[in-house]
Amino acid sequence: MPRFASISFPFLLTEFAIRKQPGLTGQPFVLASRQRGKMVIDAVSETAAKKGIHPGMVLADCKAIFPELEMLETEPGKGEKLLQALAEWSIMYTPCVSVDLPDGLILDSTGCTHLWGGEQAYLEHIRTKLGDYGYTVQVAIADTIASAWAVARFGNTAIIPPGGQCNAIRGLPPAALRLETTTLARLKKLGMRQIGTFMDMPPSVLRRRFGPELPKRIAQASGQEIEWINPVRPVEPYQERLSSMEPIASATGIVIALQRLLETLCLRLETEGMGLRRAVFKALRVDGVLQQIEIGTGHPSRNTHHLFRLFEHKIATLEPALGFEVFVLEAQKAEKVTDEQAAIWNAASQNDLKVAELLDRVTAKMGQNAVNRYLPAEHHWPERSVKQALPLWEKPTAEWRTDLPRPVHLLLRPEAIEVTAVMPDYPPMLFRHKGKLYKVGKADGPERIEQEWWLSDGLYRDYYIVEDEHGARYWLFRSGPYDGEQPKWFIHGFFA
């Protein structure tokens, strides 16, 4: 007999908001969106639900009753995205998982529960795992999807024994059959407040009085009519595999295998508009030993020749011994390729192409941190005015400052120095840095740079450009004013 598990997330969106903003824990708040000119509640937190607030209510009415209620704006389509991600995660419990909008999942648990030690342990593991992620869940398992759905949301037991779905839903309200609002209103008007009061009536009678939906739902819940689910399909990894009939121990054979895998993988990347950023080439020996080599690129690439050159000098590190029988090429990181990035491989951009390939070859040989690129950032504080960027592709959002001189080499952190000055607000005559004494011949300044109060607290800085007796120039600053105490001096950069 088939078995289905239903998972309900009564506070899915609000609990996801709590995961992103832990300060909302325990606070009554709702998610709302504008509908027909007024804010309508889409989801409520558990604390707000205890106050009698539920989805569909008008926010203004709720605020009038409960002024402390907080409101966050609903992100369109967020619930569907969350359920899709949770469905892909749930594939660890069964290969057949379906999204059950608006707040649940359906798992075909047939033949899977014994791997967890039975249905009770199966459901408990699901409940515990999702609870660790911060989600409140209600779960149930039964022979039919409809009965599992009903018991998970309206019942008191989690496991319905085989063949017991009809008895399990008799005492539940009609809403457990997923009926339309108009049908529920008619049943309520007739005093039918439990499924058992009309469940055994002939389907023809129910169809004449309530339409075809009610007998169909009863048949689905009892197992007389099959209900199908649409299982999710997880995204296939960017991975290609090549098996060899005979063990390969020569470098030529390894090269041929790598080239074939690169051609196949790059063809798929091009079809999907993606580019490779990080890849690993794995080779499995006949004795079970797995060896691998990795590469990375500074920009999304699907150029087979270029990627092979990055792998080429690392092939010699593989030790085939008795030979390799399986080769796997996996793109561990892939990114969308924009039209501008794709244009770099055209003949009109050969200079950019050569720069891109040069950077990739350098990083492949010397490591990912061997090449760095820096862009200007919109900050007054010198150490915040520069940010690290991708080696080639990220565009600057600000212009380099050219109205005032800046050092060629800016230290990551200012270093303390000892200074001798004639007067408090004068530039230094002498300064000592790392035990070496420098005599100042010329100086220019000060240039005052205030602390960015919206980011952090601290004193302002008075910067001086000083030149020693040998012609070398330095960027020094005094932190804060003279207040009767000796101020602190620092060196922050070096000029060419």
> Based on helices, strands and strand pairing, what is the structural class?
alpha+beta
* Model regions low in confidence, pLDDT < 50 over at least 5 residues: 344-349
Largest β sheet strand count, sense and barrel closure: 6 strands, antiparallel, barrel
Distance separating the two termini: 80 Å
Fraction of helical residues = 25-40%
Shape, please? flat
Strand order of the largest sheet: 14-15-16-17-18-19
Q: Strand percentage, roughly?
A: 25-35%
Mean pLDDT metric: 87
What is the tally of helical segments? 14
**Total strands:** 19
Rg, Cα atoms, Å: 34 Å
Question: What do these coordinates show?
Answer:
With 496 residues, the chain is of the alpha+beta class. Helices cover 28% and strands 30% of the residues. It has 14 helices and 19 strands. The chain has helices at 12-20, 46-50, 59-65, 78-89, 119-132, 145-154, 165-169, 181-189, 203-210, 213-222, 251-271, 304-312, 339-342, 350-366, and strands at 4-8, 29-35, 38-44, 70-73, 97-100, 104-108, 138-142, 239-248, 274-285, 290-301, 324-336, 373-376, 386-389, 409-421, 428-433, 436-449, 461-468, 473-479, 488-494. A 6-stranded antiparallel β-barrel has the order 14-15-16-17-18-19. The protein has a 4-stranded antiparallel beta sheet with strand order 5-6-1-7. A hairpin with an 8-residue loop joins strand 18 and strand 19. 28% of the residues are buried.
